[in-house]
């Protein structure tokens, strides 16, 4: 955990008391409701009275513009909550207008708003045996939320207990048929879901292809053409009124006649993005010109069958079938089509892949209909026109001080959480009537977890190891087994879900499949053996109680990205992901920040038997280098424990796939996760990942090859590495600030005069530099002498020139004034800058080209026409003769002698603002992720999307 503070309130005694209770003690009572007993709380004492509270000021700024984007003073949180967690909860989840008495000011108000609503609904709908059980339920939930043991998904915090519709679900699946009414209704329903801050997925395979006829005799448009309209709608309706894009998933069956067009849609657009970028257009994520390209607001996935995958293996032909009569209208080479899928994913990360037969083999409701699609992140897979509400447990909270996993306490937590999740369906509102009807009839839930990567590291398990996978599988089995056992108990109290009778045999068959998978699991150590033993007992209860009562819920578990709620729980890792990096960026109370080494690392070193002195040396090495390779005293066989998603010992792609395969048999739904591959990965590498995903029994898989997409601002790895060799260490204990002095230009200095034209407006720029290089003055002539415009430009020129002479870096001006948009704007007469959004945009791009080095310009994304042309031809902006500068070479002078770097007054490195940026500075490698559109910091991967560590925003997943 980022915070090592743990609440001390007799927790060990409560654990012992909770562990002594049988599973049946929280089941049905003779009164016909659940009798809840205390596990975490103390009778006669409210959970809020057990912790220390403090007041904090939450102020968020966009670091690029300096603009304050959020401010709320004197908010109340427990003292062991991190600054990041309290900031994200305040900005994202507190309700009420800022500056008014109705605005929530304390975590107490937020938790009470949600938990009291759940308790009241539980009482109203007959879930509890007596009032005492209802009160204990409220206190137990409150305690777990307060101590960050779990969190509901974001819509719960947004909506429950407010005047807004009580939407609790984050995941939606829609449906569309082969009619114009249905297609237009699809646009409408998606719009309402996006407006509410959630995402949706659907399968377009019912829409006839562009190779089939309409009833009128004309040719159909095909599903890809209708994707354009939906994409434009999604790009216009920002989720929940926020600045991030809408989240959506579009699926097409592999036997659809338009499948090749579907596969290539985003790859073709990616080529268009590259061409427009090289022509000078702003094609970064959030750039003004990115809206001119299509299909950028959805994740695309191809739904493949076992028949198709076997044809791929055999090199056989495969038939594409008409939508109306299912006849084969075209035959293709299966392997060639599969290679096209891999090639497109290599180019732009889309499409992902979903394994249809595997998905439907684990389907509990096949009599109602097949599963054809998923939510945007691919973890929720169920009936069309349905939804799922999610909650995730913080696994590291269940690790005892003796490094054993508290499986019994984990069971108790799952029982309470799954009960609350089912209660929420009783009072929930839904965006469409069809979704509401299906969800109330099938009551799909999605309990999951976060912090698996941190738990494995803390217990001395490598993420890509048999021990790590077995431990993860046992925990997942226990979670889902406990959830379904409670579901069966609830069915005996408030009834099975409405669709159960129709699907009883299929549902019980899937429960036996889960049980068989658990029975085939072979524990490796005592840690997973203890968890597996309780999982086996839980699945026995699932089958026996379910046989008598049926089940309350058609689905129980998924593994979601847990982006924003992961920060709320102060988790080091999200969902099923490994640790992102070994160093972290931590905000401090009262302002400031600190670079820290993950707190799980010292715990892991102790678990592995290292002395305190050796562990301290290893931690210091990690702080300086960001990895463990050659760390003093660390045995090489233990390196795998500290493998991460990024860095020198990044986990191999198939390591991620194998971990997903370990957990998948114990989940109702699927797993939100993207398998990252290095930039050097080949098309065949991606094809192999997709093939192994099918063989290992996954339900869905997405890949991402580093730097495959243009639409995101990235730091050049080589430039970062060179800069790393010049800079001081990132951690600077003391900085001496000196009064700035003006360095005037000599009487005679080099200068150049340039004429320019922007959008038809003509002008002149005179720039003067110091003899030892470096821009020192700029004068701009625009408009007639004596005019207001000329006077303003003269004053602006003087202000910029004086600031340059006082040491303000030119890079700062370039960052501030490029992309500034106002008239006149448009075409220029400069071959290096063909388009400018304003005169200021042109001026500072030109100054960057004239006075900044290639590496400095690369960081800003500014290149000459020659460099852009070279990138199109060779894939690199670097000149052909450029060679990577080694660290030893960069520290030599012209004579080849070693340079004493202490003689230089090296600048303090730019302050990192997130873990991603800190990781880049320490390792000299880039994190392939976009910048947050809210606060401007670099996001980091989370499941199938990205999440901002600074403000909690996501790139599309709720």
From TrEMBL:
* Top-level taxon in the UniProt lineage: Bacteria
Q: Which Gene3D superfamilies match?
A: 3.20.70.20
What keywords would UniProt list here? Cobalamin, Cobalt, Disulfide bond, DNA synthesis, Nucleotide-binding, Oxidoreductase
Q: Where is the composition biased (Low complexity)?
A: 18-29
Reactions that this protein is recorded to catalyse = a 2'-deoxyribonucleoside 5'-diphosphate + [thioredoxin]-disulfide + H2O = a ribonucleoside 5'-diphosphate + [thioredoxin]-dithiol
Domain TSCPD span(s) in chain numbering:
747-850
Which family is this sequence assigned to? Belongs to the ribonucleoside diphosphate reductase class-2 family.
- Report the protein name in the record: Vitamin B12-dependent ribonucleotide reductase
């Amino acid at each position: 955990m980022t915070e090592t503070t743990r609440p001390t309130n007799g927790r060990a005694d409560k654990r012992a008391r909770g562990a002594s209770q049988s599973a049946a003690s929280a089941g049905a009572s003779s009164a016909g409701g659940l009798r809840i007993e205390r596990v975490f709380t103390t009778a006669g004492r409210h959970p809020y009275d057990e912790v220390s509270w403090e007041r904090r000021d939450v102020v968020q700024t966009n670091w690029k513009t300096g603009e304050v984007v959020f401010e709320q003073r004197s908010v109340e949180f427990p003292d062991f909550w991190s600054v990041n967690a309290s900031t994200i909860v305040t900005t994202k989840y507190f309700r009420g207008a800022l500056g008014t008495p109705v605005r929530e000011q304390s975590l107490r108000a937020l938790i009470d708003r949600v938990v009291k609503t759940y308790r009241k609904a539980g009482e109203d709908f007959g879930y509890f045996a007596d009032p005492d059980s209802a009160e204990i339920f409220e206190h137990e939930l409150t305690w777990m939320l307060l101590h960050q043991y779990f969190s509901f998904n974001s819509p719960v915090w947004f909506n429950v207990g407010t005047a807004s519709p009580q939407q609790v679900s984050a995941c939606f699946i829609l449906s569309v048929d082969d009619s114009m009414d249905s297609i237009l209704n699809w646009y409408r329903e998606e719009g309402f879901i996006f407006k509410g801050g959630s995402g949706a997925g659907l399968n377009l395979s019912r829409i006839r292809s562009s190779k089939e006829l309409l009833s009128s005799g004309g040719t159909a448009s095909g599903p890809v053409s209708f994707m354009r309209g939906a994409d434009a709608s999604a790009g216009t309706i920002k989720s929940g009124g926020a600045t991030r894009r809408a989240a959506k998933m579009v699926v097409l069956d592999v036997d659809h006649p338009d499948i090749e067009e579907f596969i290539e849609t985003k790859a073709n657009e990616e080529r268009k993005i590259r061409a427009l970028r090289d022509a000078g257009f702003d094609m970064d994520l959030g750039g003004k010109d990115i809206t001119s390209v299509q299909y950028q607001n959805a994740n695309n996935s191809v739904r493949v069958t076992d028949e198709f995958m076997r044809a791929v293996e055999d090199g056989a032909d495969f038939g594409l079938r008409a939508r109306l009569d299912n006849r084969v209208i075209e035959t293709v080479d299966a392997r060639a089509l599969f290679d096209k899928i891999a090639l497109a994913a290599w180019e732009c990360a889309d499409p992902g892949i979903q394994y249809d037969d595997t998905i439907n083999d684990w389907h509990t409701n096949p009599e109602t209909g097949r599963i054809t699609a998923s939510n945007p992140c691919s973890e929720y897979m169920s009936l069309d026109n349905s939804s799922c509400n999610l909650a995730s447990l913080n696994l590291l909270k269940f690790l005892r001080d003796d490094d054993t996993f508290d499986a019994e306490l984990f069971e108790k937590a799952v029982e309470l959480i799954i009960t609350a999740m089912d209660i929420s369906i009783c009072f929930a509102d839904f965006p469409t009537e069809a979704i509401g009807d299906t969800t109330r009839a099938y009551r799909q839930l999605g309990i999951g977890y976060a912090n698996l990567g941190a738990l494995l590291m803390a217990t001395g398990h490598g993420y890509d190891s048999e021990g790590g996978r077995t431990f993860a599988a046992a925990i997942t089995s226990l979670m889902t087994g406990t959830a379904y056992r409670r579901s069966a108990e609830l069915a005996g109290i408030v009834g099975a879900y409405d669709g159960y009778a129709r699907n009883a045999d299929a549902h019980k068959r899937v429960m036996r499949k889960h049980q068989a998978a658990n029975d085939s699991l072979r524990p490796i150590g005592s840690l997973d053996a203890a968890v597996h033993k309780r999982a086996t007992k839980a699945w026995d209860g699932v089958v026996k109680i379910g046989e008598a009562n049926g089940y309350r819920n058609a689905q129980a578990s998924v593994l979601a990205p847990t982006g924003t709620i992961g920060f709320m729980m102060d988790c080091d890792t999200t969902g099923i992901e490994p640790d992102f990096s070994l160093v972290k960026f931590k905000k401090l109370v009262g302002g400031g920040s600190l670079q820290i080494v993950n707190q799980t690392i010292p715990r892991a070193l102790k678990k592995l038997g290292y002395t305190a002195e050796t562990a301290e040396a290893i931690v210091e090495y990690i702080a300086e280098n960001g990895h463990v390779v050659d760390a003093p005293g660390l045995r090489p066989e233990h390196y795998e424990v500290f493998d991460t998603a990024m860095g020198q010992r990044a986990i191999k792609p198939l390591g991620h796939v194998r971990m997903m395969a370990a957990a998948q048999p114990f989940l109702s739904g699927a797993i939100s996760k993207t398998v990252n591959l290095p930039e050097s990965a080949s098309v065949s590498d991606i094809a192999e990942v997709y093939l192994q995903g099918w063989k290992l029994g996954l339900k869905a898989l997405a890949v991402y090859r580093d730097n495959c997409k243009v639409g995101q601002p990235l730091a050049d790895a080589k430039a970062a590495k060179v800069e790393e060799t010049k800079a001081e260490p990132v951690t600077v204990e003391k900085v001496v600030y000196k009064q700035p002095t003006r360095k005037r230009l000599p009487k005679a200095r080099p200068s150049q005069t340039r004429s320019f034209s922007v959008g038809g407006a003509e002008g002149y720029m005179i720039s003067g530099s110091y003899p030892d290089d470096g821009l020192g003055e700029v004068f701009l002539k625009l408009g007639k002498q004596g005019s207001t415009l000329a006077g303003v430009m003269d004053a602006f020129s003087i202000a910029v020139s004086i600031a340059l002479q006082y040491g303000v870096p030119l890079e700062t001006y370039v960052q501030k004034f490029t992309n500034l948009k106002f008239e006149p704007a448009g075409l220029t007469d400069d071959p290096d800058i063909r388009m400018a959004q304003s005169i200021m945009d042109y001026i500072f791009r030109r100054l960057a080209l004239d006075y900044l080095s290639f590496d400095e310009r690369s960081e800003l994304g500014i290149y000459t026409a020659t460099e852009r042309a070279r990138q199109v031809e060779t894939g690199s902006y670097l000149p052909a003769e450029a060679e990577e500068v080694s660290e030893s070479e960069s520290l030599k002078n012209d004579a080849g002698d070693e340079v004493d770097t202490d003689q230089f007054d090296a600048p303090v490195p730019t302050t990192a603002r997130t873990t991603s940026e800190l990781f880049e500075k320490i390792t000299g490698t880039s994190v392939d992720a976009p910048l947050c559109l809210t606060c401007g910091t670099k996001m980091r991967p989370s499941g199938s999307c990205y999440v901002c560590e600074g403000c909690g925003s996501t790139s599309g997943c709720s």
